[in-house]
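Follow-up to my earlier ticket, as requested here are the two runs.
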Amino acid sequence: MPQDRIPSVSKTLADVVAAASWADVGAQSIEARRSILNFFATALGSARDPVVMAAMRTLSPFSGAATATVIGHSRQMDAMCASFLNAISANLLDFDDTHPETIIHPAAPVAAPVMALAETRRLSGREVLTAFILGVDIECRIGNAVSPRHYARGWHITSTCGIFGAAAACAKLLGLRAEGIANAIGLAASQSAGNVENLPSAAKNVSVGNAARNGLFAALLAQQGYEAAPRAIEGPLGWARTMGDEPDIARLLDGLGKTWEIARNTYKPYPAGIVFHAVIDACLKLREQIGRQFDQIDAVTVQGSALLLARGDRPVNNERDARVSIHHCVACGLLLGRAGIAEFARETVVRPDIAQLRQKVRAELDTRMPDGAARVTLRLSSGEALTETVTSPRGSQAAPLSDRDIEEKLREGIRTGRSDWDADRVIDAVWRLDAADDVGKVLQSLRPPSASRQPTSN
């Protein structure tokens, strides 16, 4: 069949998004709510972080009608500003959900604009969940088609693919026909950006925020009749080839509309890059063996894949470095026996004993180790060597977090994030989201009662 007679990727994806209903995706509702609960947990954990507050001060003078909640705060902003802020706060601590095949963090770029648009348009919980499931599917399928080369070239895949999920989900909420959804996806291709070099800085979060905001923008433009090239993704000069190599279309479309990528989602027990979780688990096991004899540790060797070393064999100059550091994860696991938000905060990162132990850690490549696995060996002053190998860390598909684990993660986020939101109220609202008639009323109920009566204008 001639190339121009083959349906484009944008059109094929759009047809599925346009036709899908709650009846098609409702079986994924529990996993969607787990993901959204985790989204709230991570957003609440950094809602008052200086990075988020700086972004809020920057955007405030330009925000339009205050219709969408900023998570962890009493105020509202316009839907695009709220999308940006909630996406960066959900992604800031490296504590968000992870799609293992692509290392995309699905919720932040999709849940943020979906919740903001639903609040503005007074949409139902089932509409939100349907759009969210579809958006996650689109971003992860596009990610599947270009992985792992896209990320290896330096593109931050959560940002570059997240915008497609945001655009498709928002277009679904706007009730666009397949043609409009295809245009929204194509318009997203013109705004996709974000690079891996910026991961140790707040610039990473800007691209995740833009994925959320610009995905919503793409859908709104499509609603007004804006058009995009049909093959904006897979064309000779399209998104995939421009930012990598020829896309694997068969992988992208395999099971489309029948299987759902959200079913593969995982949730982090530690606020660090997903590839470091096996390092932490191995060190927690080794800590049990040596008791409190930390002064007996002469050296620590961490063996893992090329991805582990590329992401984490780095000096630690600040808390952002620590969240993507093999050396700091070792220090947390061995010396502190914990790896929560506080263990990656500045106060812990600069502790002399932590810094001293980081200096004893050496990373080695082991080409036999799969991504996400690690082997940690302690060499003690007695000459004894202790080794632990972890291939399926806590939080992985083989050892998933429970619903209660994610609830506790949210409670910790509220404590460490210094939010005055009520944990029980958020947890209950998310679990009941499928029964909500008006997501706007739900979000209004989550803002502190005393603050919600205050004017929300800027």
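Run two:
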Amino acid sequence: SAPYSYKVKNATIIHPTPIEFIAYINHAKYIITDSFHGTIFAINFNKNFIALKRNNDTDKNSENQRFYSLLQKLNLLDYFLGKNEQYDINKIKAIDYNLINLKLNLLREQSINFLNQSLKDSKHE
């Protein structure tokens, strides 16, 4: 029903609007994504997720480092899987977001402090 969708073999590929994208994530029970932004939204909405690598770490155009950076800070590296890794979604443990949210709040606070300090420093130059 999305305005941007098309059929491929037996599947429907949906390109949701931004509002629909957020609604899909908000209402999802579990998210499997290869998108960095999909991963961020999953974490912000406290959803169980698996982030799949699009490329090998050594590929020239790999963007895996930003996944590593974020997921390592939140102790979520176990949820970042290579595209050829085998996994059983039923055996992947649920994410306890109590500690994750505390870490996220600390990271947000550090970011805001950094931005505020940078703005103050730039005014004095």
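The only thing I checked on run two: Strands lie at 4-8, 11-15, 30-33, 48-52, 80-81. Let me know what else you need.
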